[in-house]
Amino acid sequence: xxxxxxxxxxxxxxxxxxxxxxxxxxxxxxxxxxxxxxxxxxxxxxxxxxxxxxxxxxxxxxxxxxxxxxxxxxxxxxxxxxxxxxxxxxxxxxxxxxxxxxxxxxxxxxxxxxxxxxxxxxxxxxxxxxxxxxxxxxxxxxxxxxxxxxxxxxxxxxxxxxxxxxxxxxxxxxxxxxxxxxxxxxxxxxxxxxxxxxxxxxxxxxxxxxxxxxxxxxxxxxxxxxxxxxxxxxxxxxxxxxx
Length: 243
Description:
- This protein is an alpha/beta fold.
- It is 35% helix and 19% strand.
- Strand 1, helix 1 (18-27) and strand 2 form a beta-alpha-beta unit.
- Helix 1 runs parallel beside helix 2 and helix 1 (18-27) packs parallel to helix 7 (223-242).
- The two termini are 30 Å apart.
């Protein structure tokens, strides 16, 4: 079986400024998300994203966030901005990954698929289709095949597609539903300084993703909030390893 890259323990998303990149990395984050969804208040253009990935300097994973964008266009942005991972935050189906493997800049790219989880039949069918497809893809010992490294479980919002500050249903994620088993989870949705530890204790994800919870304004990150959440999250996982 091909080696699957690890899902980040802590990802800060929607960064728009180089100084916030440096502050996030100093806090201990292991992935930074750049949002290419134009309707988002945290969206970045290609030139801005290039400046941010230059600031990242491969110190942590650079994740591009896309919503219902065609694989060939995503591939162009991945190449232009030197991204390490693609986060699909729209209505993409597993066939997206199959198409991605035929695009040179997306061959072997790590994929995170955002899903909402309310326990509905629709949620179950969508997640199960991705999980089964991922199992097959991840069994292929071919470095050119794109790999699903995790689900990002976010609160449901069909318009803004994340970063709303709405809290996801943590209580529905542990015990882990069968459809979500076998694929690591990155928890998102309404995580802040005052509830980060609770979110981890309740949902028991493999990592968390924070956007609005570390901001003073959309796209403007707050250094103290980033440090506070990082201390809580990384401390929690260190304790988990010891227990």
